[in-house]
Amino acid sequence: MARPSPRYVGEPRHRAAVLHLLDQVGALSDDAPVRLGKRTSNLFRQRTSTDTTRLDVSDLTHVIAIDVDARTVHVQGMTTYEDLVDATLAHGLMPLVVPQLRTITIGGAVTGLGIESSSFRSGLPHESVLEMEILTGDGEVVVATPDGAHAELFRTFPNSYGSLGYAVSLIIELEAVHPFVVLRHVRFDRVEALTDAVAAIAADRVWAGEPVDFLDGVVFSRHEAYLTLGTWADTLDAAEQPSDYTGQQVFYRSIRERDRDVLTVHDYLWRWDTDWFWCSRAFGAQHPLVRRLWPRNKLRSDVYWKLVAFENQHQVMSRIDAHRGRPARERVVQDVEIPLGRTAEFLDWFLREVPIEPVWVCPIRLRSTTLEPWPLYPMDPGELYVNVGFWSTVPIEHDKKDGDVNRVIEDQVGRFGGHKSLYSDAYYDEPSFDRLYGGDDYRPVKKRYDPRGRLPTLYDKAVRRR
Predict the structure, then answer these.
(1) CB distance 133 to 14 below 8 Å
(2) How many whole angstroms separate alpha carbon 254 and alpha carbon 241?
(3) Which of 11-25, 297-311, 345-359 shows the lowest mean pLDDT across its residues?
(4) pLDDT of 190-230, one tens digit each?
(5) Residues forming beta bridges with residue 187, ordered by sequence position
(6) Is the pTM of the predicted complex or chain greater than 0.90?
(7) Per mean pLDDT, which range of 143-147, 187-191, 371-375, 412-416 is the poorest?
(8) What are the DSSP E strand ranges found in 33-152?
(9) Vertex 54: Cα angle to 48 and 55 (nearest 5)
(10) Most distant CA pair in the chain, distance
């Protein structure tokens, strides 16, 4: 089904929406928590907070304006990347990094972390932000830029997960697109060979004489791993047609089946969303009969997320498994960044000790090597990292408890010099968390912009789930 044309609200309507938001905040008591009533979420933390007041942000979900010549877009913070991409592709442009799932919001990707196959050359989404309007915990909207009066908020906002405020609008850089992305799926029999190839490609952006514009991969086992190399293309060979993985075909399976493939730029950007990478198999959506019956427009990540949320609330499958005598299961849904030089060791440990396959790998390097590192997710400028993503459940052994596997993974990530994203379960003690996620830089900014503590702290959000 065709999606409606992108809706532009323009500056006057945006200003009216901001005033409406401020009116809502002003109607709250001075010590009332400030929370957003977003219609989508890609977090995997179940909140323990019981407060119910949510600010209506439904008027902050649109593109404000696109400057085609400057290659920038002014966009409201609650706009999904699906809507943002629809708007920018109409002008032959796209954000420098488009996270894999359609309903991730631009504000969410900046206050959290986003990553995709352009990250080995374009870094993280917040690195292409030129300006942000931020609703602070103190109930004000401030304009943060890299070198303005609110520069310290600009630098500490990434990975703050709404604990310093919420992005009301952002101005971000765009890049030009081509109509197609040609894919090469290159197999490696050892993860060490894969990481060696990542180093070579990141250095020269070339593999076997052909340019590489996008880079990610899938590790199916210790002896079967693939890198997918994407290259922009303006035309195709006469006999070549773009593949379609939004219906009966499943993208991640094609990686094993095809050496070469081609997608339109739109379908490339959302290639992982249709099956939530491979997690749709948990709902039977990859079974041929089920897939034929499943509405095509419901093959998407936000539908699966709602199914997970329903299970979290009602525990239907957990009760069925218990009735059948099956062990309880621990959710292991994580993305971690490991320095490239330690990635093969980490993968070897993970594939040996944690019963989850496949896993996603995506190289990443900060876009700038000269700016001060982003303090709440400190990565070394110039260092090449690999994001390792694994999303499944594991049985809880009879002498173990829920969370034990995640705790072991946290320990190992630290041992290998890495960090983990905070969109899912975290178990760090507070001093360790403070050391890993920029506590010394965070505290003065928190005090300045949320002096009454109306927003949870980052530790409260990430670990205590408030």
Answers:
(1) no
(2) 15
(3) 297-311
(4) 999 999 999 999 999 999 999 999 999 999 999 999 999 99
(5) 226
(6) yes
(7) 371-375
(8) 63-67, 72-76, 93-95, 129-136, 141-144
(9) 145
(10) 66
For residue 440, count other CB atoms closer than 10 A to its CB: 9
DSSP alpha helix (H) spans, 400-462: 404-415, 430-436, 439-449, 458-462
435 Cβ contact list (under 8 Å, min separation 6): none
Q: CA angle, corner 318, sides to 297 and 52, nearest 5?
A: 70
How many helices (H) and strands (E) the chain has is answered by 16, 16
Task: Give CA 462 to chain center in angstroms.
Answer: 15
Digit-coded pLDDT (tens) for 91-145: 999 999 999 999 999 999 999 989 999 999 999 999 999 999 999 999 999 999 9
Alpha-carbon span 448 to 462, nearest angstrom: 21
What separation in angstroms does the CA of 63 have from each of 76, 84, 304? 6, 7, 26
Average of pLDDT values for 41-62?
Answer: 76
pLDDT at 296 over 90: yes
Closest CA to 212 of 123, 343, 117: 117
CB atoms < 10 A from the CB of 189, how many? 12
Residue 249, Cβ neighbours under 10 Å: how many?
14
Which residue, among 367, 373, 371, 384, has the nearest Cα to 438 in the 3D structure?
Answer: 373
Taking only the tens place, the pLDDT of each residue in 133-167 is: 999 999 999 999 999 999 999 999 999 999 999 99
CA–CA dist 32, 53 (Å, integer): 8
Give CA separation, 386 vs 175, 279, 355, 420, in Å.
23, 21, 20, 11
Supply 73's token pair. Answer: 């877009």
Please give the Cα distance from 300 to 285 (Å, whole number): 10
The neighbouring-strand residues paired with 183 are 230, 261
Is residue 216 within 8 Å of residue 181, measured between CB atoms?
A: no
pLDDT tens by residue, 28-38: 988 888 888 87
Average pLDDT over residues 305-324: 79
124: nearest Cα among 107, 110, 105: 110
